[in-house]
């Protein structure tokens, strides 16, 4: 026989878990968006600063050295940012997967003990 109180309680627990997870996922996406915005602003400011410095250069050698330095720092900054964003997406994926860990673990156990 179906116990409606237990079914109602389980449904309520599931809904609360989903809403909590949804909130955590939303915070993760907001953090990623904020990080991307900050990087874009910094990148734009770096380019503006580089262009300003380039206009004051007196020789080709100095311009080449300035450009080389700018490209190197831009590349290193991009790699650092890409690594950071990759880690943020990895953490977000773990957060999304978290509610499914327990049910999947329970369903896999019977198969692993049979083998």
Beginning-to-end CA distance, first to last residue: 34 Å
SSE-based structural type: mainly alpha
Q: Can you summarize the main beta sheet? A: none
**Helix coverage percent of residues?**
over 70%
| Overall 3D form | elongated
β-strand number: 0
Radius of gyration: 26 Å
Nearest-integer average pLDDT: 86
Low-confidence stretches: none
Strand content: under 5%
| Number of domain modules | 1
Total helices: the number is: 2
Order of helices and strands: HH
Keywords:
about 120 residues; 2 helices; about 0% strand; elongated
Explained architecture:
Helix content is 93%, strand content 0%. With 115 residues, the protein is mainly alpha-helical. The chain has one domain. The longest helix has 55 residues, at 60-114. It starts with a helix and ends with a helix.
Quick structural summary:
With 115 residues, the chain is an all-alpha fold.
Q: Topology of this protein?
A:
Elements: H1 4-55, H2 60-114
Helix pairs in contact: 1-2
């Amino acid at each position: 026989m179906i116990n409606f109180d237990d079914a109602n309680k389980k449904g309520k627990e599931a809904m609360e878990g989903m809403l909590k997870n949804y909130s955590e996922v939303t915070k993760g996406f907001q953090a990623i968006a904020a990080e991307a915005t900050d990087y874009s602003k910094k990148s734009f400011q770096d380019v503006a600063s580089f262009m300003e410095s380039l206009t004051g250069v007196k020789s080709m050698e100095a311009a080449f050295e300035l450009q080389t330095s700018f490209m190197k720092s831009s590349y290193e900054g991009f790699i650092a940012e890409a690594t950071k964003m990759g880690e943020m997406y990895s953490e977000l994926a773990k957060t999304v997967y978290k509610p499914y860990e327990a049910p999947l673990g329970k369903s896999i156990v019977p198969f692993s003990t049979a083998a």
